[in-house]
Design brief:
Elements: H1 2-8, H2 12-33, H3 38-61, E1 65-70, E2 79-91, H4 98-101, E3 103-106, E4 110-114, E5 119-122, E6 128-131, E7 144-151, E8 158-163, E9 167-171, E10 177-184, E11 189-196, E12 206-214, E13 217-222, E14 225-231, E15 235-236, E16 244-246, E17 255-271, E18 277-280, E19 285-287, E20 302-307, E21 312-318, E22 323-325
Antiparallel strand pairs: 1-2, 1-19, 2-17, 3-6, 4-5, 5-17, 6-16, 7-12, 7-17, 8-9, 8-16, 9-10, 10-11, 10-15, 12-13, 13-14, 18-20, 20-21, 21-22
């Protein structure tokens, strides 16, 4: 009878032996499968989430965002950071908001004149307007962007903007726009001069100006087109006074509306555990203002690799639009 049972199936002993062998084989298999341990898996998810949020920050600000790895120091391990622009100050020049925007008018400067979007700031009779705007302290150490709308009724020389110690904008007699920025290597700062050509000016119509100083470059856009660009030192001057439009002795005769100032700040992401190493195939990752991997900075996709002492334990490729896990 016992012989019949054995012929029709496994004995208990045989089944136990099979289970043990399966456990050994499974253990060997999972040792390789689980090479990417929970810590590295969690880090990879954090990195991918950080990069997706970075693309959103670029789209939201309309400005490029750069991502780098900061090396370990005495207080922290290696960590990933992004340099992003965030709104720091704004003003719309509606008379009812002048107290909140903390605008101080001098001379012939007036609020409430027709602007590009509602009430604007008029200098048609000259004058000056000091502006603190809505927002807190403006940080310029890592870079900044200033943008606003302006309208120039006729070709005339005059100071458009001054941020003492850092930035000046002035219309030229020939019809162009001059920009002076104080920058340097940290020990020595000097005024860098940029010139927008006369053909970039459109008299009698509203135009949008945008100036950015960051990453060793100063760039001026007018109506979305690059009007001037130059290389600058990594350190920027420190403003010594509130920003102001117009000037007491040499104001332009026009209007200004919708001022927005962006500060560039560093935001930290995940910290890399000591047992792992994070490697990028590029010194930095640049996302353009649409949140895409910047084609001018990256000819190919950028790889992100997580390594332990001996092998690859995880990673992914950063493409133009999204991330893909390394196979």
């Amino acid at each position: 009878m016992a012989r019949d049972l054995r012929s029709r199936g496994f004995t208990l002993l045989e089944m136990m032996v099979v289970m043990i062998l399966l456990g050994i084989v499974a253990g060997l298999g999972f040792a390789g499968f689980d090479k990417m341990d929970p810590g590295s898996r969690g880090l990879q998810v954090s990195l991918e989430t950080f990069l997706e949020a970075t693309r959103d920050r670029a789209r939201g600000s309309g400005q490029e965002v750069r991502v780098q790895i900061l090396p370990a120091d005495e207080e922290h391990g290696a960590r990933i950071v992004r340099a992003v622009f965030q709104p720091a100050m704004e003003a719309g020049f509606e008379p009812q908001f002048s107290a909140r925007e903390r605008i101080a008018l001098e001379g012939g400067a007036r609020l409430g004149e027709p602007g590009r979007c509602g009430g604007g700031l008029s200098f048609e009779e000259g004058g000056r307007a000091k502006l603190e705007g809505r927002g807190g302290r403006v940080e310029t150490t890592n870079g900044f962007t200033l943008e606003f709308d302006y309208m120039l009724p006729e070709a005339a020389a005059g100071k458009l903007f001054e941020w003492e110690g850092l930035l000046e904008l002035e219309f030229r007699r020939g019809g162009g726009l001059g920009v002076r920025l104080r920058a340097g290597d940290g020990e020595f700062l000097a005024w860098v001069q940029l010139e927008a050509p006369p053909e970039s000016m459109r008299l009698g119509r509203w135009q949008h100006l945008r100036f950015t100083a960051a990453d060793g470059r100063a760039r001026l856009w007018i109506d979305g087109e690059i009007a001037a660009v130059d290389t600058i030192g990594p350190a920027l001057g420190v403003p010594t006074d509130t920003l102001a439009f117009g000037a007491e002795d040499s104001s332009f005769r026009g209007r200004v509306d919708e001022v927005l100032l962006w500060s560039r700040v560093l935001e930290e992401g995940a910290e890399v555990p000591e047992i792992l190493k994070l490697e990028l195939s590029s010194p930095e990752i640049v996302f353009d203002r649409h949140g895409r991997l910047d084609a001018a900075s990256h000819a190919d996709a950028v790889s992100v690799r997580l390594m332990d002492d001996v092998a690859l334990v995880g990673g992914f490729m950063i493409g133009r639009f999204t991330q893909e896990t390394l196979r």
